[in-house]
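User: quick one, sequence for these tokens?
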């Protein structure tokens, strides 16, 4: 899954999580996984210097705020991820130039930060974790680098990988890991390109040819479940590009793309089956929905409900682990809304909504 942030030159910082939803178990009172009754969601709120926490009903999708939320953290947390062991939450603190580690209370879902914070490079705004929970990567927007860490499964502690931080090209604003974990894709918004880095035990190396040209203002990335296609939301062009991924990691544009999306697409995500892909369009305040040609990978706008209105300025699409809906954050209304996915048609309809006191920039969810 992927999260993204707008570059400094675009003034407004936003983060989206594309494909990094972690799993867990838990007790019936809404513990770290909530058992069969509920699961948990953790949201970064930079202006509160904290992490909001919610329990989500597995049956109804209704939100309940966890007592004590938002929990205090670092300076301007911009991105959050949950460890698949379901014991830890990590937050990238953009103004603090560091990463916070929180433990999850197994009974209540409450968070407690563990000191000290781990140093990053300048302006970390985005986190991505591998599916096994062994490595964490932080995109440092101002320094144009990726900080890489190994994760202690017992304590959650981070240890910098030798050679970290690694260069990734200027203004990294979105990241996505290949399903195999062997490639890390990074959108360089000010270059209208995507850099590709090989991943070897956490060590990163730029693939020859990086950054590969895409549309203008790429702010969202999502890798197809097959791993051989990369979908790129081009905010300045209001388009969605599809890039073929070679065995070396090199990218090339798929014929028939880019296709038109809504105004200023800033995030892109797949449904759980990989049959449909969606863009969150910040300036038109809607979501574009596409089916995918199974042979070419080209997105095709749905014939019904190709665009669905949401609250003002949606900035990310986070797929719930159930696969039943996306969580969508709207900056203008300070809301998180569930958009139900029709598994047969791919169409979206709005469902439960919760309001926060300040805008949310990233959300991570447990089972």
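Assistant:
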């Amino acid at each position: 899954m992927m999260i993204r942030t707008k570059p400094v030159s675009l003034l407004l910082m936003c983060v989206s999580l594309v494909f990094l939803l972690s799993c867990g178990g838990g007790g019936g009172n809404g513990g770290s996984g909530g058992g069969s009754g509920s699961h948990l969601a953790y949201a970064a709120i930079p202006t509160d210097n904290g992490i909001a926490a919610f329990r989500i009903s597995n049956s109804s999708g209704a939100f309940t705020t966890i007592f004590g939320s938002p929990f205090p953290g670092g300076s301007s947390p911009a991105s959050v991820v949950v460890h698949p062991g379901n014991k830890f939450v990590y937050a990238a603190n953009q103004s603090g130039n560091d990463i916070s580690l929180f433990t999850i209370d197994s009974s209540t879902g409450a968070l407690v930060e563990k000191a000290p914070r781990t140093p990053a490079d300048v302006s970390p705004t985005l986190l991505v974790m591998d599916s096994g929970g062994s490595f964490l990567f932080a995109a440092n927007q101002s320094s144009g680098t990726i900080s890489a860490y190994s994760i202690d499964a017992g304590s959650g502690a981070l240890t910098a990988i030798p050679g970290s931080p690694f260069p990734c090209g200027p203004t990294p604003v979105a990241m996505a890991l290949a399903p195999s974990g062997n490639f890390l894709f990074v959108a360089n918004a000010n270059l209208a390109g995507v850099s590709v880095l090989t991943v070897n035990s956490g060590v990163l190396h730029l693939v020859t040819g990086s950054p590969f040209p895409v549309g203008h203002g790429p702010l969202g990335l999502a890798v197809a479940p097959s791993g051989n296609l990369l979908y790129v939301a081009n905010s300045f062009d209001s388009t969605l590009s599809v890039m073929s991924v070679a065995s070396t990691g090199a990218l090339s544009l798929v014929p028939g793309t880019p296709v038109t999306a809504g105004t200023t697409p800033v995030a892109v995500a797949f449904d759980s089956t990989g049959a449909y892909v969606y863009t969150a369009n910040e300036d038109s305040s809607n979501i574009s929905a596409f089916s995918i040609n199974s042979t070419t990978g080209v997105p095709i706008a749905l014939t019904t409900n190709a665009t669905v209105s949401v609250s003002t300025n949606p900035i990310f699409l986070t797929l719930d682990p159930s696969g039943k809906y996306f969580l969508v954050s709207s900056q203008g209304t300070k809301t998180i809304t569930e958009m139900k996915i029709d598994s047969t048609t791919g169409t979206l309809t709005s469902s439960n909504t919760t309001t926060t006191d300040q805008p949310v920039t990233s959300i991570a969810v447990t089972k």
